[in-house]
Design goal:
633 residues; alpha/beta; seven-stranded parallel beta sheet; six-stranded parallel beta sheet; 26 helices; 45% helix
């Protein structure tokens, strides 16, 4: 592989004939053994920037990523391209992790994906000196910064990794980072002298941003989806809201489904597949949806509720129009949401007394005694926990985040784990078994044909995909796998639907639980600043939306986009004062009127009339009621 050029590697494995802007420059910098920080937009091809140089050099690339869903997605994509890849995360057993390290030592693998909390375990330190590592790639690198929007203390351990791998270059990658967060990433990762930061302006030329404060969000959403054809995402703040909005759209003959982390793995997979395959047009979801999903033809992303930070908004809105064609990002809000968001500060950063109360409840739920638990992993069913202890879900979520950030434990997204299969039987035993029990032959052959190398090593499998391949009922496939497991033909571990809580230290007495008050206070201030920026982006009407986003992230000078709601309002031709007076007097006289009647009575041409009505709506003079009548506000 080492003698091929970057362009040849790109074509061989990805079938692309050329790189995107800056990709090749970054790859050359990495190949020169230099450290790199790459800030590329969502869907901007970040993974190619470390995968290509890793394939060009002998040895193994260690990739650190926080989300099992993302890990699984990238590992699957590499395996499809015939690139041998391994992964280790917090939901795996000690034995499974050890086997994975032993495979990594064989030298037959090019990538080892690792969740950050695994970096400081004794097992990792035991094996790391013997691995021939050619590159360390840090995905979602903003997680290392305390001033970022998704700080994870386990990322701080990456700096220590350099102590074991002194001459190995590091490439850190993220979709968004403010100037302060960029500096923090470079410092915390101990990037070596000569490191380079590569970033592009935070501009998506074909993406039009708009913000509306409509009388009815529901009516506005339906209006948007009827105006803009094609695939759509609607982001909602709660699981219940996803279901309600999906039901509303279906009642208006707009095909939709809902998606959130509370659904079973099979339900999530089915809905995701239906949306990607365009069997449903709209997916109504929480922010659990979208990571690692590559669907370039999304025409509109609607935020039905205000996010808590521009970082979230930019990433989620950026899932529209990745094919480079015109697309729309629409944010719907109302005034009450702004005060609701501000009130979140107290819940996101509770007092130490509340933190201790939640911590005591968690330990009681897990049956974990004081001074025990280090490196132990527990099933943690949050829904069951909340029901038993009657605690505020948002408070619990905030306390878990704080205790993760203080280094007590980490809550993994294990519900994204795949099932795994390893063959116990020899080829001879398997032949004899199939001859004696032919009813199991379809599933056995299906496994061997669908998953390369499964006879020699443990492989992640998907029962839904296997059932579809075999044209069998999924439950029948599962029961056959369980029976083959019982008969010791395979070792089948079904996917866990329950997240895991991995303790990084022994559990302290509740009264001895301490948190760094100064650090938490600083993080609280950073959160308040992010919240305020999100509010200002939403309510302001003077600055081009793209310029506002680009300026927030420190992206340098850019021109107005010309296609967001702010730019379009500025570019409108002046509206005749006489026509405005005519329209408002007709509406006042009738107390509410349909557009066709307004045209008839005002005698104003329809294009001009539409412009006047939109202008007066923006100025909060007019509004449209649930019956579609235009009236004074």
């Amino acid at each position: 592989m080492g003698e091929m050029t970057p362009a040849e590697i790109l074509y061989k494995y990805w079938n692309y004939s050329s790189f995107r802007p800056m990709q090749e420059e970054m790859i050359r910098h990495v190949l020169a053994g230099m450290d790199t920080l790459a800030i590329l937009p969502t869907g901007g091809g970040k993974s190619v920037c470390f995968q290509v140089p890793a394939l060009m050099n002998p040895g193994l690339c260690i990739v650190i990523t926080p989300l099992i869903a993302l890990m699984k997605d990238q590992v699957g994509n590499l395996e499809k391209r015939g690139i041998s890849t391994l992964f280790i995360h917090s939901g795996m057993s000690f034995g499974h992790v050890k086997k994975t390290f032993e495979k990594a030592l064989s030298g037959d693998y090019k990538f080892l994906y690792v969740s950050p909390e695994r970096l400081e375990t004794g097992l990792f330190r035991e094996y790391i000196p013997y691995l021939k590592v050619n590159l360390i790639a840090v995905d979602e690198a903003h997680c290392i910064s305390q001033w970022g929007y998704d700080f994870r203390p386990s990322y701080l351990r990456i700096g220590n990794l350099r102590g074991y791998l002194k001459d190995v270059p590091v490439i850190a990658l993220t979709a968004s980072a403010t100037t302060d967060v960029q500096k923090d990433i470079c410092n915390k990762l101990n990037l070596c002298e000569g490191f380079q930061v590569y970033s592009q302006p935070y501009i998506r030329e074909a993406l039009s941003y708009s913000v509306f404060d409509p009388p009815s969000k529901e009516n506005k959403l339906i209006e948007i989806l009827k105006k803009v054809p094609g695939s759509a995402i609607v982001y909602c703040k709660s699981r219940k809201r996803t279901k309600d909005v999906s039901k509303l759209l279906s009642s208006h003959h707009i095909s939709s489904g809902f998606y959130h982390a509370g659904l079973t793995a099979d339900e999530r997979r089915q809905r995701q597949d239906d949306w990607i395959g365009n069997r449903i047009r709209v997916i109504c979801c929480t922010n659990a949806f979208g990571m690692g999903i590559d669907k370039p033809d999304v025409r509109v992303v609607v935020h039905f509720d205000m996010p808590e930070a521009l970082e979230y908004y930019y990433q989620e809105a950026g899932r529209a129009g990745r094919d480079g064609k015109k697309a729309y990002a629409v944010l719907l809000y109302n005034q009450s949401e702004i005060s609701d968001l501000k009130s979140l500060v107290a819940v996101r950063y509770p007092e130490i007394k509340e933190i201790r109360t939640v911590f005591a409840a968690i330990c009681h739920y897990l049956g974990l005694a004081a001074n025990k638990g280090k490196d132990l992993s527990f099933d943690f069913e949050i829904g069951d926990f909340l029901e038993k202890f009657k605690l505020n879900p948002l408070l619990v979520s905030s306390v878990i985040k704080i205790l993760e950030q203080e280094g007590y434990f980490v809550l993994s997204d294990s519900f994204f784990n795949q099932s795994t299969v390893e063959f116990f039987a020899t080829k001879q035993t398997l032949y004899e078994f199939e001859s004696k029990y032919p009813e199991f032959s379809p599933v056995i052959k299906g496994l061997l044909r669908s998953y390369d190398g499964i006879f020699d090593q443990r492989c992640p499998v998907d029962e839904f995909t296997l059932a579809r391949f075999l044209r069998m009922d999924k439950e029948k496939v599962k029961s056959d796998l369980l029976e083959l497991n019982r008969r010791k033909i395979i070792d089948y571990i079904p996917r866990s639907e329950i997240p895991k809580l991995l303790f990084l230290t022994n559990r302290p007495e509740v009264t001895d639980l301490v948190v760094d008050a100064k650090n938490i206070s600083e993080r609280k201030k950073a959160y308040e600043a992010r919240l305020e920026a999100m509010i200002q982006f939403t309510i302001q009407k003077d600055v081009c939306r793209s310029i506002f986003i680009n300026s927030y992230f420190g992206g340098g000078e850019v021109n107005p986009c010309g296609i967001c709601d702010v730019c379009l309002n500025k570019n409108r031709s002046p509206v005749s004062t006489n026509n405005i007076d005519t329209v408002t007097s007709v509406i006042r006289m009738n107390g509410g009127i349909q557009m066709d009647q307004l045209k008839q009575m005002s005698k104003i041409p329809l294009p001009d009339l539409l412009q006047i009505v939109e202008y007066l709506k923006d100025e909060k003079v007019l509004e449209t009621d649930l019956q579609g009548k235009i009236k004074m506000k």
